[in-house]
Design brief:
heterodimer; A: mainly alpha; 13 helices; B: mainly alpha; 11 helices; elongated
């Protein structure tokens, strides 16, 4: 046992130089994309028909203040210069001022971030906790009734829009039987029990569609892995079917799921926007939808930029984990 | 985002010359025609007919309001009940089919066409064109898709045409990646090398030789994409960013009905069922189509699952 772990450790050390090279290359390739992402987000405000300064100041701005902001933002300068100015501001943590909220964009987002993170992380955990056993069961009991039921569940849960599921859950669990509140949010620090009570319905709403995707993927990977030689060897050694499935097969079947989880961070983030709107959670999603409807463009711009960068960072992180776990990746190319 | 292993190109099929490909497709279609899952096509057909013949089928004009009979549950006169203004829900659901199907199909046609074009051109010419196309694709994929759609609609203003534009742009990178991967594989095949050697023009090789051979995975992806686009469109309309009232549309109907969740939950029934049924039947048909066009994935359900974003 000890010898094995020492071996594993030295193996990781040997591989780590390659991993570092891999990470550096990934970041290098990411830089131009990050620049383009920033440029697209910057251009958002220039796509809107009309004068950006007027849009930024809202409908009731005086011509003087519009002209002043024009000068202050450098809107009289050519577009590339404007972009560089905007980017240097953004890099130093200044994403401008909200029109409606009378506070900096970064501050408005910071205040609401914990709410969205709590919702997203819990929904992701809920989906994995449900999907892993279901996927393994389906793969080890192929074409059984349970497998069929799991498949039907996955078909339905991907066909139900998030907002419909949310309203249905509110109807059944908050209106018909008053088990959970229909909406609202208290922070965990103020009222832990209330926070968890408020969390259940939004979490289930957001996570259920993801369960189906994860379950299908785990089932598919397990089916493939279970057909491989080392699994046959494990069986031939006389190991229990459960040990074969959970210890030997799952380890390899889970790797591709990591990638999917990375992609899901995007849909969970977008889903959180809808769930927060339905359940009246004061998170980034609710802020964004309100800002779009009230034409508070600096906020929308800030949220779009931040969500793109966190999505990119999450996927980079997952690729790095992948490189550590699967030696084939880091020696590619 | 660069994601390791072949996940981005799930449909790795053996590519054969055009003649054989068409024979293979016709055999697959024959099998497909005998699949019980094809019955879900009937549901889809009902929706298509409802969309085309909406004025003849719907029992009432969708905008005709009648305050005296507002907020009623299902009755014989109004099979799905009435909304808060006494408008017939069934008629509104039928008219809503037009918007969902139009936006769903048109956004995939536009986005899919542009993406496929980019993918084939990039993979065929390689070099800097390919690099530029990869960079555009990676950039678009760096945004969570619904958030990108939200941003585009926010910039262009809430309307159904802008939703269509946004949803088309959002699908471009998926098709670009899929088509690029498939084309890269195809260009190593004998029939393409032969076409190049015989001096066939690049445009002809790309569209007459390569495209027909990489068409099936794109088609499978498209069936699933249409259901995703329908879901996204109704979501944007639900949030108030798509179709504006009083135009009948499923997402905005649900948004209007959610206020009456406690007093008149029936109002949700029609549009909810419509969305679920159409998405479900599209997904099941897409699965069946994939199983028959790509037999390798038949037993490993979800293995060649089209990219979900």
């Amino acid at each position: 046992m000890i010898e094995a772990s020492i071996n594993a450790f030295s193996y990781v050390l040997k591989g780590s130089a390659a991993v570092v090279r891999y990470i550096l290359r990934r970041i290098l390739f990411m830089l131009p994309v990050a620049l383009l992402v920033s440029f697209l987000t910057f251009m958002m405000i220039h796509l809107i028909p009309g004068d950006p300064a007027r849009i930024l100041l809202g409908e009731y701005a005086t011509p003087q203040s519009v002209a002043a902001l024009d000068r202050q933002l450098g809107l009289d300068k050519p577009l590339p210069v404007q972009f560089v100015l905007w980017l240097t501001q953004a890099l130093s943590g200044n994403l401008g001022q909200s029109i409606q909220l009378q506070q900096p964009v970064v501050q408005a987002i910071e205040q609401r971030l914990p709410v969205t993170v709590e919702l997203g992380v819990c929904a992701l955990l809920y989906s994995l906790i449900l999907a892993i056993p279901l996927g393994i069961y389906s793969a080890t009991h192929r074409n059984s009734l349970g497998d069929w039921l799991a498949n039907v569940f996955s078909l339905f849960s991907t066909a139900i829009p998030v907002f419909v599921l949310g309203l249905a859950l509110i109807f059944f669990f908050a209106v018909a039987i008053r088990l959970f509140p229909p909406g609202g949010y208290v922070s965990f620090g103020d009222d832990p029990a209330g926070n968890i009570r408020d969390l259940i319905l939004p979490m289930v709403t957001l996570g259920t569609g993801v369960v189906a995707v994860n379950m299908r993927q785990i089932r598919a990977n397990m089916v493939e892995v279970l057909g491989q030689d080392y699994v046959r060897t494990a069986r031939a050694k006389g190991l229990s079917e459960q040990r074969v499935a959970y210890v030997h097969a799952l380890k390899n079947a889970f790797l591709p799921v990591l990638t999917i989880v990375g992609l899901q961070i995007g849909s969970i983030l977008a889903g959180a926007f809808i769930v927060e709107t339905i359940f009246l959670w004061p998170g980034i999603g609710q802020l964004t939808i309100m800002s779009i409807l009230s034409k508070d463009y600096p906020i929308v711009q800030g949220v779009v930029l931040l969500s793109a960068f966190s999505y990119m960072a999450a996927n980079l992180l997952i690729d790095i984990c992948y490189a550590f776990l699967d030696p084939r990746i880091r020696f590619e190319r | 985002m660069a994601t390791p292993t072949g996940f981005q190109q799930p449909e790795t099929m053996t590519i054969r010359p055009v003649a054989k490909a068409s024979r293979r497709i016709s055999r697959a279609l024959y099998n497909f025609a005998h699949d019980p899952r094809l019955w879900f096509g009937v549901i889809l057909l009902v929706f298509v007919i409802a969309a085309i013949f909406a004025p003849f089928i719907s029992p009432y004009p969708p905008l005709l309001y009648h305050p005296a009979i507002a907020e009623q549950g299902p009755t014989l006169a109004h099979l799905l009940g009435t909304d808060d203004l006494g408008r017939d829900q069934l008629s509104r659901v039928i008219y809503g089919t037009r918007i969902s199907l139009t936006v769903g199909i048109a956004s995939i046609l536009i986005g899919g066409l542009l993406g496929t074009l980019m993918g084939i051109i990039g993979a065929y010419f390689k070099g800097w064109i390919d690099q530029v196309i990869i960079m555009i694709t990676d950039t678009l994929l760096s945004f969570p898709s619904l958030i990108l759609a939200l941003a585009i609609v926010a910039a262009l203003g809430p309307s159904i045409v802008n939703v269509l534009i946004a949803l088309a742009i959002v699908r471009i990178p998926i098709y670009a990646r899929l088509a690029r991967g498939q084309t890269l594989q195809a260009t190593t095949e004998g029939y393409v090398t032969a076409a190049i050697a015989s001096g066939t023009r690049a445009r002809k090789i790309m569209f007459r030789h390569i495209l027909p051979n990489i068409f099936t995975p794109l088609l499978v992806q498209a069936t699933i994409s249409i259901s995703l686009a329908i879901l996204d469109e109704s979501t944007l309309s639900f949030l108030g960013l798509g179709v504006q009232p009083p135009t009948p549309e499923w997402g905005s109907m649900i948004s209007e009905a959610q206020v009456y969740l406690t007093s008149d939950p029936w109002m949700l029934l029609g549009p909810t069922l419509a969305i679920i049924l159409i998405v479900l039947s599209l997904n099941i048909l897409g699965d069946a189509l994939r199983d028959h066009l790509n037999p390798r994935s038949k037993d490993i359900r979800g293995m060649g699952a089209p990219l979900r974003e």
